[in-house]
């Protein structure tokens, strides 16, 4: 199935009709389908661009229009377009002005005296594709910003050189108790307990902080109110405002750690119970069973007591089995 050929919609803003015809002629020989709209001045261009049903792939703009100053036209035109790239058409005399326009957001500039159909086509296609990439990047940035600021887990970005906080999300502000302005005047070391500073300083001089992306680390942090919490940290190196930085996500696992400690304490208690059963309880039990066994084998015991001693001995053996079973189960828990 053949795809429908792309039709390029082009707005040419040019007051010189001869120059417009030249551009129109160049466009007509291109190996692509085009729709051309002509505006002779800024007012006409503004009217065309304000139509809700009209969208252009590219705008070809002459810098010298009769109804607007040369130093204002670029800014005004950029305000009128959104997704559409603007290519400036200039003369040799205005090259300096055109180069400055690039820094303001113009996609490219072409010198009229040197213009060829191939040069025009290349500039148009490259400008359109660059604009698509730029907006994809901007959309990705927006998605990152949404994920960052709306995350229920505390997140922040810090500078890898100074360790200064560069940005924090609402969850970090809520969980740690610092205002955003306070965070941005702090380094990440300031949310560590003082007794953990040696661990922080050791990490500063380690190359691991530059290579271990997404690796989980378990640390302690200190809130503004002084509470110390256990956190699970995941981080990744990013570029933030042209600086090498680290994006961090912190998960408060203090309650989980408390539960683990409770279980460990219970296991310790079970181990102590097992030791008590195996040493303290079994010792007198073993003595009692030895005495019963001795009495059973004695000739001086009346026959009517022999059955009673047998029951005592069987009960002792059963109790010894129960104690052994408790010890075995406790040892199994400790191994886990």
From TrEMBL:
CDD domains associated with the record: PAS, REC
Keywords: Phosphoprotein
Source species taxonomy: Bacteria, Pseudomonadati, Bacteroidota, Flavobacteriia, Flavobacteriales
Protein name: PAS domain S-box-containing protein
One GO molecular-function entry: phosphorelay sensor kinase activity
InterPro entries recorded: CheY-like_superfamily, HisK_dim/P_sf, PAS, PAS-like_dom_sf, Sig_transdc_resp-reg_receiver
Taxonomic superkingdom: Bacteria
Domain (Response regulatory) ranges: 9-127
Pfam families assigned: PAS_9, Response_reg
Record-listed 4-aspartylphosphate modification sites: 62
